[in-house]
Design brief:
The protein is of the alpha/beta class. It folds into 2 domains: 10-35 and 42-182 and 419-451, Rossmann fold (3-Layer(aba) Sandwich), CATH 3.40.50; 186-418 and 455-468, Dihydrodipicolinate Reductase, domain 2 (2-Layer Sandwich), CATH 3.30.360. It contains 16 helices and 18 strands. The longest helix is centred in the N-terminal third of the chain and has 14 residues, at 79-92. The radius of gyration is 24 Å and the shape is globular.
Length: 475
């Protein structure tokens, strides 16, 4: 009998993450975020799209320019979404080479994933963008059907559902990439590999902050035309009480993890990835300050405690669905020598160097970790670009207020990602399907990073901290 690979646990995470940190890196020098030119024709991969709603459209728009993909079938329980998916593929086939998709090809649309899997022949991979509570069942079915899977995050609405996905990937030997797309984003990979690990520009990271602030306008209930209502028996068969719940499933505890998983999971994943470990505890609070009729909190704040090789780190995360103020969404890694605030939005990405220490007594011993006098060498190599000098601290009668620190020197990352933000992660997945790359975020590593997130809402509901054990975090 073949021995199956054992699931990765917390003890393996640091070594595994460090070893794979450089996989799929596509950055170079200035212009490093640009796409490669003259991409050769790729071998054909037959793909089925499972879930054709808003996120399914986002993923399709990120895939349509990837060479060699043949979108063979689409699946969605809502005929409005299903027909939209069919039409998007049909429109695309007027532009693609004939050697892997015939001109005018129309994919078959399915309501039920079981019918699709029983009917379609020759599929290589599926892309799953269904609601969270279907992720595990759909992924497990597709893996067991011999297909490679790209599944949106979160892996599941329950930690046991996520564990089932890890087991199915191990048992089948098929690929399963989870949609934490920042893991393949050139800006993030360059920042981790070259700036934090390679040049140690943060020094000792002591604090991490992250947030996603979303305006009320973007957090309203999703409306629909009554003429497009799905029949009650179909809604019931697929786990929805009514059309309102179908359209707004993220607000219901049985169907999703709420804002902390819908938005926060992207960023807490970066906490764990950049620190190279998982937290030892979480303490969270949340409330329904505005959307009082929703099951999930409309705002959540959480503090994670980490033990890293450099020392203790506390990471604060907030997600708000009632205001967009405060800089939108980003993750900030604050160290003794510098701070990196990073985001998929380049306008929110900034790097700050701590001011060099004042001259000391020449007879005094040197500090254990001296702060570099400049980052000129990083600017010269194209790793950073210098921003305008910050204003000097205000003075009163020529005396600088001792309570005000010297402003940090500001830098930016050169270059822009000229692709949709999900495209590099999907490119990595399909390259792995062809045997040309390793996955940047397989189900093993995604589970290790997601596991702490499943305990944020329980901590907030009970108003008490949770100290993690193997039972909480192991697959």
């Amino acid at each position: 009998m073949e021995t199956l690979p054992s699931p990765i646990n917390r003890r393996d995470f640091l070594a595994k993450t460090a070893a794979g940190a450089g996989a799929g890196l596509v950055l170079g020098m200035p212009g490093m975020l640009g796409a490669a030119q003259g991409t050769p024709q790729a071998s054909r991969i037959n793909v089925a799209l499972i879930g054709c709603g808003k996120q399914g459209q986002v993923l399709f728009d990120s895939m349509k320019n990837i060479p060699g993909l043949h979108f063979q079938a689409v699946c969605d329980i809502w005929d409005y979404n299903r027909n939209g998916g069919v039409n998007r593929v049909r429109a695309l086939t007027t532009k693609v080479p004939k050697d892997y998709t015939p001109k005018g090809f129309v994919p078959k649309g399915y309501m039920d994933i079981d019918e699709l899997l029983a009917t379609e022949n020759g599929l290589d991979a599926v892309v799953i963008a269904t609601p969270d509570f279907w992720h595990s069942e759909h992924t497990v079915k597709c893996l067991k059907a011999g297909l490679n899977v790209y599944c949106e995050k979160m892996m599941s609405n329950t930690i046991d559902g996520a564990r089932a996905m890890v087991r199915a990937m191990a048992e089948t030997g098929k690929l399963c990439q989870i949609g934490h797309q920042r893991r393949s984003n050139p800006r993030y990979r360059f920042t981790l590999d070259q700036l934090i690990n390679g040049n140690k520009i943060c020094g000792q990271i002591v604090n991490v902050n992250g947030q996603w602030n979303r305006a009320i306008k973007s957090s309203q209930n999703i409306a629909y035309k009554p003429s497009l209502t799905i029949k009650p028996d179909i809604l019931s068969k697929y786990g929805f009480k009514d059309m309102h719940q179908f359209m707004n499933w993220r607000f219901f505890r049985d169907l999703s993890g709420g804002a902390i998983s819908d938005l926060g999971a992207h960023q807490i994943d970066i906490f764990n990835w950049f620190l190279g470990t998982v937290p030892k505890a979480v303490y969270a609070t949340g409330g329904n300050s505005y959307f009082k009729d929703r099951e999930h909190f409309d705002n959540v704040m959480a503090v994670f405690d980490y033990d890293t090789p450099q020392g203790q780190v506390r990471a604060f995360y907030q997600v708000l669905t009632t205001t967009s103020a405060g800089g939108g969404y980003f993750e900030s890694f604050m160290g003794t020598e510098g701070t990196i605030r990073i985001s998929e939005n380049s306008a929110s990405t900034e790097i700050f160097k701590e001011a060099s220490p004042a001259p000391k007594d020449p007879n005094a011993p040197p500090p254990e970790t001296p702060i570099p006098l400049s980052w000129d060498h990083l600017v010269q190599r194209g790793f950073l670009s210098r921003k305008a000098a910050p204003p000097k601290p205000q003075t009163t009668e020529g005396v600088i207020d001792s309570r005000v620190s010297a402003p940090p020197e500001g830098f930016a990352l050169p270059g822009e990602l000229n692709k949709p933000p999900h495209q590099p992660h999907l490119e990595n997945f399909f390259a792995a399907v062809r045997g040309e790359a390793k996955l940047n975020c397989d189900a093993h590593h995604a589970f290790l990073s997601e596991a702490p997130i499943y305990w944020v809402n329980p901590s907030a509901l009970k108003h008490e901290p949770i100290t993690f054990t193997n039972e909480h975090l192991d697959a």
